[in-house]
Amino acid sequence: MNLIKGNNVTLGLNVVIGNNVVIYDDVVIGDNVRIDDNVVLGKLPMKSINSAVTTLKPLPPLEIGSNCIVGSGAIIYRGSKIKDGCLVADLATIRENVLIGEKTIVGRGVAIENECSVGSKCKLETNAYITAYSIIEDGVFVAPNVSTSNDNFVGRTKDRFKHFKGVVARRGSRIGVGAIILPGIELGEDCLVAAGSLVTKNVPAKKIVMGVPAIIFRDVPDEQLLKNQ
Predict the structure, then answer these.
(1) Which stretch of DSSP H or E encloses residue 163?
(2) Which of 81, 91, 126, 204 is least surrounded by CB atoms within 10 angstroms?
(3) CA atoms of 112 and 124, how far apart (whole Å)
(4) What percent of the chain has pLDDT over 90?
(5) Phi and psi dihedrals of 207, rounded to 5?
(6) How far is Cα 186 from Cα 173, in angstroms, rounded to an integer?
(7) pLDDT by residue (tens digit) across 137-187?
(8) Distance separating alpha carbons of residues 175 and 124, to the nearest angstrom
(9) Contact indicator for 43, 24 with CB cutoff of 8 Å
């Protein structure tokens, strides 16, 4: 089994732990949680000498709610909170100070950077990238290979440190496969970003946008709205 467990770890009832798992100090795990092989829980962040968004301030313990599954090779950092009923799939990474709402799916290879919040009943599919300082509200769908960004200066000039801003995806918004969302963009409630689009402007609620750059195509059909599911 080869479990490495730190100090003050709290395990709920019926927790199943796979092989070669590392659980760092103070991690809190709820009832009926499955942790698969090669998972790392409660990892501390690493800060390079030129990191723009990582700090080394004290962090609260990682908390994982009841009835969650953490897939093989996943890494979840200290300071984050995963609420009840979530699935964190194989090879996913969830950085520090991230909140994941109830019954959300974080798909295979998804990366959620630090200082993000993700709502309840969201689906973040394979290899999606959620940049730091993003807000994803309830019921949001993010298709595979979606990319988001928070730096309009592309890593150059000191001014960029004043302007970091992630993406805001409002309730029920959907992002198609391979779309790219630029820094600070807000996706309105129940909007739909078509596959392969490059979003350079805010998207109004209940609109479909598509293209490079994305422009408004038409309204989202009423039967596709979150309230009608």
Answers:
(1) helix 160-163
(2) 204
(3) 10
(4) 87
(5) -110, 150
(6) 10
(7) 999 999 999 999 998 777 777 777 676 799 999 999 999 999 999 999 999
(8) 10
(9) yes
| More confident position, 191 or 152 | 191
Q: Model confidence over 91-110: pLDDT tens digits?
A: 999 999 999 999 999 999 99
Asked if 142 and 161 count as a contact pair (C-beta separation under 8 A), the reply is no
CB 28 within 8 A of CB 46: no
Going by the DSSP 8-state scheme, the letter that residue 213 receives in this structure is T
Residue where the block lists tokens 């408004």: 216
Cβ atoms of 35 and 41 closer than 8 Å: yes
Cβ atoms of 196 and 178 within 8 Å: the answer is: yes
Q: What is the mean predicted confidence (pLDDT) over 57-73?
A: 96
Rounded Cα gap, residues 42 and 183, in angstroms: 28
**H or E, element range at 160:** helix 160-163
Rounded distance between C-alpha atoms, residue 229 and residue 225, angstroms: 7
For the record, the structure tokens of 108 come out as 């295979």
Q: 31-61 burial by CB neighbour count: b if 16+ within 10 A, else e?
A: ebbbbbebbbbbbebeeeeeeebeeeeebeb
Residue 52 has a pLDDT of 60
- Nearest-5° Cα angle at 229, 81 to 216: 90
What pLDDT is recorded for position 169? 98
